[in-house]
Amino acid sequence: MAAKGSRKGAGGKGSNRRAKKGTGGHSRRGLRGKGPTPKAEDRVYHPAHQRKLQREQEEAKQAQREAYRNRTSIKITPGNELIVGRNPVFEAVDAGIGITRVFVASGMNDERVMSVVRAATAQGAPIVEVTKRDLENASGQPAHQGVGVEAEEYSYCTAQDLLDRADRKGVPALIVALDQVTDPHNLGAVLRSGGAFGATGVLTTVRRSAAVNATVWKVSAGAVARVPVARETNLVNALKELKTAGCFVVGLDGNADLPLEELELATQPLVLVTGAEGRGLSRLVRETCDQIVSIPIASAVESLNAAVATGITLYEVARKRRAA
């Protein structure tokens, strides 16, 4: 009779051995997923990948051709501005700003252009003959009229300088303040309207405001040479200082209850504040205003842009001042 525990089976001597590990762990790596299937154009063996490479090569060639077309021999010194067009160049020269070089397109025989060139070179600036494409590429302005000048960087003044200017003229101040208006086209258009309707100057801020550049010179038709631009760090503080000096601050807002024609402060020293399109006047600027006025418009038109609204308001103020 076999001894207890000697037989095979559950109680046999093989039952004390350690169980072997299962095979699941051995093939775990093979069970891992390989991630999402790459796009067809990212698989090197797929025809879509070849089409992608051809497309990228064509885009690179197009970029090279574009760079070749946009190249220019005009290199402006950092800090200087390129001003193009007969009127802007004439106004810049007439204002006495520093002219470094005068650029004239080859074959230019227009007597009006040449008169501007003679006025510019009277300051001693050399003439540089360039192509029309050079002027267009350097300035970004296709309507350059074949003439341009490299001028020193625009010199901004302060809000106090604008008040002093009004005092010298013996007229009540009429200052346009722009609240975060960043489009240079709007700044140029406001300067042009300011020159037409007797504005003392335009007040902007160092940050979040358009700077005086070649676009502003062009759009303003040179009015930037006659209507000074003041720059302050904080618009609210500048408005408070102008109020302390005796100015009334009037903001423009399409939702205001007081229509422009009922404005009774037109004959007083005035600061007109225009906000950015879409956002309008910022909260702190609005709270600083003495009055908020609106321009009544037809219901078919939702709103006016900053430059147009400012021009209409300047005209109305100038009309009321003449009537007074």
From TrEMBL:
CDD domains in the record: SpoU-like_RlmB
Protein name: 23S rRNA (Guanosine(2251)-2'-O)-methyltransferase RlmB
PANTHER family: 23S RRNA (GUANOSINE-2'-O-)-METHYLTRANSFERASE RLMB
Organism of derivation: Gleimia hominis
Skewed-composition ranges (Basic and acidic residues): 53-69
Residue ranges of every copy of the RNA 2-O ribose methyltransferase substrate binding domain listed in the record: 82-157
Compositional bias annotation for Basic residues: 15-32
Similarity comment: family membership: Belongs to the class IV-like SAM-binding methyltransferase superfamily. RNA methyltransferase TrmH family.
Keywords linked to the UniProt accession: Methyltransferase, Transferase
InterPro entries: Alpha/beta_knot_MTases, Ribosomal_eL30-like_sf, rRNA_MeTrfase_TrmH, SpoU_MeTrfase, SpoU_subst-bd, tRNA_m1G_MTases_N
Pfam families hit by this protein: SpoU_methylase, SpoU_sub_bind
This protein's encoding gene: rlmB
Region (Disordered): 1-72
Biological classification of the source: Bacteria, Bacillati, Actinomycetota, Actinomycetes, Actinomycetales
